[in-house]
UniProtKB/TrEMBL annotation:
PANTHER family: INOSINE-5'-MONOPHOSPHATE DEHYDROGENASE, INOSINE-5-MONOPHOSPHATE DEHYDROGENASE RELATED. Homotetramer. Its EC number is 1.1.1.205. Gene3D superfamilies: Aldolase class I. Pathway: Purine metabolism; XMP biosynthesis via de novo pathway; XMP from IMP: step 1/1. GO terms for molecular function: IMP dehydrogenase activity; metal ion binding; nucleotide binding. Pfam families: CBS, IMPDH. NAD(+) binds at residues 256-258, 306-308. This is Inosine-5'-monophosphate dehydrogenase. Its main location: cytoplasm. GO terms for cellular component: cytoplasm. Mycophenolic acid (MPA) is a non-competitive inhibitor that prevents formation of the closed enzyme conformation by binding to the same site as the amobile flap. In contrast, mizoribine monophosphate (MZP) is a competitive inhibitor that induces the closed conformation. MPA is a potent inhibitor of mammalian IMPDHs but a poor inhibitor of the bacterial enzymes. MZP is a more potent inhibitor of bacterial IMPDH.
Length: 496
């Protein structure tokens, strides 16, 4: 740990992931024995120490569901109305593997042409018909490819073609019960209805084949529902937002602020901990022990560390405040550990190696934006540019995001500020495929790193870090260049 401490009388130099390299240790165990289990907060433990950022191009309900299924957790962003955010939290808590909770529905007055259009754009034609064409209203029929195959008139009403003798499952049925009904009825889709006959979800036979167990899934103890987080700001109205999130079942609230050591955040932490003692609260962002101490004294259960180091951030450039992330993580983690408070290293992660370094510096989990924004589960559609498949990714301090309301992360105490100063940019990131393959790839990469360093768990890594047995060295700029791919004319960038 000597690299992080200045010699007496010398100025402090701060380092980050690219500056640092871990020294190898002795390997006495196979890679599959490396245990990545770690605390997110005092009470929440994750099997995979990964958190998706509360950003509007990263975490909405689909990301949160899939992060939790893979052993991590998603923090649903707050750049939407509080009701919408609460309903997304609720959807994650109510998620059941194999059930489609937001099926496309049509009404009896929609037409055969509507079904054809859905088939063209979304790829399926098995559609439940409800009284008002929405989920949650009475199921009155079902349309499948067979019902419309030989209908030439695209204006024909669905009431004329739909099947009305329906096989349904009841709300609360298990996946294997639903499977049995599907086997018996030989149907492709099974609508699930509540006691009043209202449509609540749908099961597709094709999805059932794909439905796997997720043994590492992050679940609460009480109901075995998926864990989910949500972010809020520090304005008085955010207390009401927090109440709605708690009512929807949120497990952890992240107070989203680029400089977390403010009277506004301290007040919010105290309010949340006094009002909802069971709720886990992560404060931040902080990069110094002084900032951390204020939030710890206010009662946080976890801290988020990082300032101005995210891929889309311009805070250090615009505000001249922040800290190199390796040093920030090391110092705050070492300090917070004395109080039993885990820290999340937030931002700046570009590879599995960076994750390993963040954890080896003392972080209990890492939070990622750009690493996850290009996955299928991130909000938004893919588009092509110069032959590359991309998704949009933007900073919450970019003018674009702030115009939707995310300026609360960057402005405290002045609600009617006239001049907006951007602290982030908007851009795009490359397609990363699905979290179903990407998260196992990240886990395995980190396991290899820890195995090379000779440690089989994060606890073991930290014990060695603090007794000097797990060592970092600083890499010169030439060494950093040497440590990357070099001397090749071109090469394949395939990750897994
Ligand atoms: P990565 O590097 O994972 O960073 O893409 C994600 C983290 O960056 C923070 N964030 C911002 N910071 N201006 C900033 O200074 C911004 O506009 C901005 N948007 C997000 C945030 O901590 C996130 O988790």
């Amino acid at each position: 740990t000597a690299v992080f401490h200045a010699a007496p009388g010398k100025a402090c130099v701060a380092y980050t992931y690219e500056d640092l390299i871990l020294m190898p240790g002795h390997i006495a165990f196979p890679v599959h024995e490396v245990n990545l289990e770690s605390h997110l907060t005092k009470k929440i433990i994750l099997k995979a120490p990964f958190v998706s950022s509360p950003m509007d191009t990263v975490t909405e309900q689909t990301m949160a569901i899939n992060m939790a299924l893979q052993g991590g957790i998603g923090i649903i962003h707050s750049n939407m109305s509080d009701d919408e955010q609460a309903s997304q939290v609720y959807a994650v808590k109510k998620y059941k593997n194999g059930f489609i909770n937001d099926p496309v529905c049509l009404s009896v007055n929609d037409t055969v042409g509507d079904v054809v259009r859905i088939k063209k754009t979304l790829g399926y034609s098995g559609i439940p018909i409800t009284e008002d064409g929405k989920l949650g209203s009475k199921l009155v029929g079902f349309v499948s490819a067979r019902d419309i195959d030989f209908v030439d008139d695209s204006t024909k009403k669905l009431s004329d073609v739909m099947t009305t003798s329906l096989t349904t499952g009841s709300e609360g049925c298990s996946l294997s019960e639903a499977n049995e009904i599907l086997q018996r009825s030989k149907k492709g889709k099974l609508p699930i209805v509540d006691a009043n006959g209202n449509l609540v979800s749908l099961i597709a036979r094709t999805d059932l084949h794909k439905a796997r167990d997720f043994p590492n899934a992050s679940r609460d103890h009480a109901n075995k529902q998926l864990l989910v987080g949500a972010s809020i700001g520090t304005r008085p109205a955010d207390k009401d937002r927090a109440r709605k999130l708690v009512e929807a079942g949120v497990d952890v609230i992240v107070i989203d602020s680029s400089q977390g050591d403010s009277i506004y955040q301290l007040d919010m932490v105290q309010h949340l901990k006094a009002t909802y003692p069971e709720l886990q609260v992560i404060g931040g962002n902080v990069v110094t022990c002084g900032q951390a101490l204020h939030l710890i004294e206010a009662g946080v259960d976890g801290l988020r560390v990082g300032m101005g180091i995210g891929s889309i951030c311009t805070t250090q450039e615009v505000c001249a405040v922040g800290r190199a992330q390796g040093s920030a993580v090391y110092h705050v983690a070492k300090f917070a550990r004395k109080f039993g408070i885990p820290i999340v290293a937030d931002g700046g992660i570009q590879s599995t190696g960076h994750i390993t370094k963040a954890l080896a510096c003392g972080a209990s989990c890492v939070m990622m934006g750009s690493m996850l924004a290009g996955t299928e589960e991130a909000p938004g559609d893919y588009f092509f540019q110069d032959g590359v498949r991309l998704k949009k990714y933007r900073g919450m301090g970019s003018i674009e995001a702030m115009s939707k309301g995310s300026d609360k992360r960057y402005v405290w105490g002045d609600d009617d500020i006239q001049v907006k100063v951007a602290q982030g940019v908007s851009g795009s990131v490359a397609d990363k495929g699905s979290l179903r393959r990407y998260i196992p790839y990240l886990c395995q990469g980190v396991r290899h790193g820890l195995q090379d360093a000779g440690v089989n768990s994060l606890d073991m890594a930290w014990e060695r870090l603090y007794n000097g047995k797990l060592r970092f060295e600083i890499r010169s700029p030439a060494a950093q260049k040497e440590g990357g791919v070099h001397s090749l004319h071109n090469y394949s960038k395939r990750l897994y």
